[in-house]
Design goal:
Layout: H1 7-14, E1 23-25, E2 28-30, E3 37-41, E4 48-53, H2 57-73, H3 81-97, H4 99-110, H5 114-135, E5 142-143, E6 150-158, E7 161-165, H6 171-184, E8 188-192, H7 199-211, E9 218-220, H8 225-234, E10 240-244, H9 247-258, E11 264-268, E12 274-277, H10 284-296, E13 308-312, H11 313-328, H12 348-363, E14 367-370, E15 374-377, E16 380-384, E17 387-390, H13 397-400, E18 407-413, H14 416-424, E19 428-429, E20 431-435, H15 439-448, E21 453-456, E22 471-472, H16 485-488, E23 489-497
Parallel strand pairs: 7-8, 7-10, 8-9, 10-11, 12-13, 12-20, 13-18, 17-18, 20-21
Antiparallel strand pairs: 1-2, 3-4, 5-6, 6-23, 14-17, 15-16, 19-22
Helix pairs in contact: 2-8, 3-5, 3-7, 4-5, 5-6, 10-11
Bound molecules: nicotinamide-adenine-dinucleotide.
Nicotinamide-adenine-dinucleotide (NAD) binds near residues 195 and 244.
Length: about 500
């Protein structure tokens, strides 16, 4: 079991890795057509792991052509769902068989602790592939209640060529949330991983081919957003663009679509999630643990990070002391050490961005109560301490903008009513949480909070069976659950007039 491997064991395995670093188009690995590459860097050491194909317009054209040809050929799209299921289950199985390799690639590529890539990212990704694979031969279409001389069928069909553009914070998991329902529904898929974290997506392509996904059905194009991402967004022969990433880039995709073929655009974007702790919370120790995990898990690089702690004045000091005591035990460490709870920030750019917000918080007059410093481990890497700002005003930058780092903004409020107003005072609406032992407040808040997920007495609850997505500028559409199929299928009405 991975959990038993030591830091030295993991380090010892690095030399044995072989990095897939070319694009995967039409069932084959291939260099980018321009020959351009970019450095794939381990953020914990600054070392270049490999040089990866930097795909651009011509590569996108080739991938879309391969995907369209595969879709038209119909080997995958017209395959019996039960057979597609078997292939997807095989892929899930191969992912679990290669769990340690995938976890190591993920940790080296983006800096997250190996403790989580082995237990959260890879098993969660394989489970996603498995769940959508299992679903497809259990979904039935509909027949409408029409007059007796008519049969009207409401059927769902694969949308066609689907492009998925994903971020770096959970590279494999975010990819699998998109590609699993898209493939299961019979589409041809082009996945563009973030330039910071292409390695697991490329290995996934190889495993998919080994599982039996026909050539051209699953393609992976590493490359930059402005080039490969934009070319996918503007392509005239892409039917659906499913995106996870920042709100800023999500808006670009809406523009790309409007200026090209009006492809469907589905957006899972940023967040600034409120985590409300009322004085009647059932157990402050439990609430503190969940609050700490809610902000510092994955270095705070989580779209649903509970980055605004809205807490009733009368318990604030007691509660904050508990949260900070947990934070003190989560200081960043070598991501390959299985004891490490917080790893490296994904790259220097992100580190500078987060440090810029820490600076802004101090300048705006919030009280830096904990952390706030950049840390170097073994003289390398970009690590940031778990950080807490107290006495934050909700109008401050650190309360309104997504930091995407380990920075908690604590906003004291006088009562539950003010907590609700402050919670909804944001452009985002991805998630929110409320800790209370009053069923009336729990219900009132869960109805009134304007976000796609509301957690009561926990943080980050949910599994593959529950939909996930945002209100407001956190996006549209839903990942996970059967609702995810809505993004990747077209609905057709067939009205048959009987003689
Ligand atoms: P990002 O928006 O910078 O990049 C995401 C993807 O878009 C990458 O593949 C990137 O190459 C591509 N891209 C960047 N610029 C582009 C452009 N001009 N045209 C086309 N494509 C472009 O986001 P990120 O920094 O990789 O990830 C962090 C963001 O992702 C945060 O805002 C976070 O909240 C969000 N996120 C949201 C969810 C969710 O489910 N709602 C989940 C994870 C992350």
């Amino acid at each position: 079991m991975s959990a038993q491997l030591s830091r030295d064991d993991w380090k010892g395995r690095i030399g044995g890795l072989s990095y897939r670093n070319q694009a995967f188009i039409g069932g084959k690995f291939t260099a980018s057509l321009t020959g351009k590459t970019f450095d794939c860097v381990n953020p914990a050491t600054g070392q270049v792991l490999t040089k990866v194909a930097a795909c651009e317009q011509a590569d996108v054209d080739a991938a879309v052509k391969a995907a369209r040809a595969a879709f038209e050929k119909g080997t995958w799209a017209n395959m019996a769902p039960a057979q597609r299921k078997r292939i997807m289950l095989k892929l899930a199985d191969l992912m679990m068989k290669n769990r340690e390799e995938l976890a190591l690639l993920e940790t080296l590529d983006m800096g997250k602790p190996i403790a989580f890539s082995t237990t959260v990212d890879v098993p969660g990704s394989a489970n996603t592939v498995q769940w959508f694979g299992e679903a497809i031969d259990k979904i039935y279409d509909e027949v409408a209640p029409t007059p007796g001389n008519v049969i009207a069928m409401i059927t769902r069909e694969a949308a066609g060529v689907v492009a998925c553009v994903v971020p770096w914070n959970f590279p494999l998991l975010m990819a699998c949330w998109k590609i699993s329902p898209a493939l299961a529904a019979g589409n041809s898929v082009i996945l563009k991983p973030a330039e910071q974290s292409p390695l697991t997506a490329l290995r996934l392509a190889e495993l998919a081919a080994e599982a039996g996904i026909p050539e051209g059905v699953f393609n992976v194009l590493p490359g930059f957003g402005e080039t490969a991402g934009q070319a996918l967004g503007r392509h005239m022969d892409v039917d659906v663009l499913a995106f996870t990433g920042s709100t800023e880039v999500g808006k670009y995709f809406l523009r790309y679509s409007g200026e090209s073929n009006m492809k469907q655009v589905w957006l899972e974007c940023g967040g600034k999630s409120p985590n409300i702790v009322l004085a009647d919370a059932p157990n402050l120790d439990v609430a503190a643990r969940r609050t700490a995990f809610g902000i510092w898990f994955n270095q705070g690089e989580v779209c649903t990070a509970g980055s605004r702690l809205i807490v009733e004045d009368k318990i604030k000091d007691e509660f904050l002391a508990k949260v900070m005591a947990i934070g003190q035990k989560m200081m960043p460490g070598d991501p390959l050490d299985p004891k490490t709870q917080m790893g490296a920030m994904v790259d220097e750019t992100q580190t500078k961005r987060v440090m810029g917000y820490i600076d802004a918080g101090q300048k705006e007059g919030a009280k830096l109560a904990m952390g706030g410093k950049q840390v170097h481990i073994d003289n390398a890497g970009s690590f940031i301490e778990p950080t807490v700002f107290d006495n934050v005003d909700n109008r401050m930058k650190i309360a309104q903008e997504e930091i995407f780092g380990p920075v908690l903004s604590v906003i004291p409020v006088k009562d539950a009513e003010q907590a609700l107003t402050v919670a909804n005072d944001t452009i985002y609406g991805l998630a929110s949480a409320i800790f209370t032992s009053d069923i009336n407040k729990a219900f009132k808040f869960s109805k009134a909070l304007r976000s796609g997920s509301v957690w009561v007495n926990t943080y980050d609850g949910g599994d593959i069976t529950t939909p996930f997505g945002g209100y407001k500028q956190s996006g549209n559409g839903r990942d996970k659950s059967l609702h995810a199929f809505d993004k990747f299928t077209q609905m057709k009405t067939t009205w048959i007039q009987l003689g």
